[in-house]
Design a protein that fits this description.
236 residues, 5% strand, three-stranded parallel beta sheet, mainly alpha
Length: 236
Amino acid sequence: MIEFKVGYGNKHQKNAIDQVEDYALDLKNFHGESHERLIIPLLVSTKSTHANNTISKDADGIFKPALTNKDNVGELIQEINGVIGLQPPINSEVWENSVYKPTPTIIEAAQALYQGHDVKDISRSDSGAINLSITSNKVNQIIDHAKHNNEKVICFVTGVPGAGKTLAGLNIANTRHNFKEEEHAVFLSRNRPLVKVLKEALARNRVKTILVLKNLQRRKKLKRLFKTYTILEMKD
């Protein structure tokens, strides 16, 4: 996977390296035909000086970003091919049309959760839905155990960007917000823009839901009136 930076100075910038690595993670985790493939992120910064690369991959099949310039792209690709060896062929048409299944945006997730849906109903990724459910269930088990034994526990949930960590937190906070069980879970975030957007989205969604319910009740009432009028007309 190749990312070009044209006229980007004579060094490979850290933000460009992070960008190409994020693209690789995104492909590996959310693109169906890329799940079982080796992903090699390659950064071509056209005016950069020569970089010494160590071709190595992590356990998930994603290689460390390889760095090159406009003069050494082909040479580096040949070097990488020599390291990874012969790989199963890729059907380009199947790969291009493969489903892309990221987790939903945090706004969509919050709106769905607060309408009573479960986390598995709102994830667009089958594997993501399973992982989110497993994570939520495990944290809920830990909470129940801590409550039963009068303990205090901190849980750390890790994952790549977009894996659904915030979604898992929202789901857990929503399910544990149960006054009857004396549970008063809250979702806290230091990301002020996110919190502001979430609050606005939830407020608008609530207003929209109330309007829909009112319209539904109005239609039911009109339907009942119409039935009554029809019966009276038939009697007449």
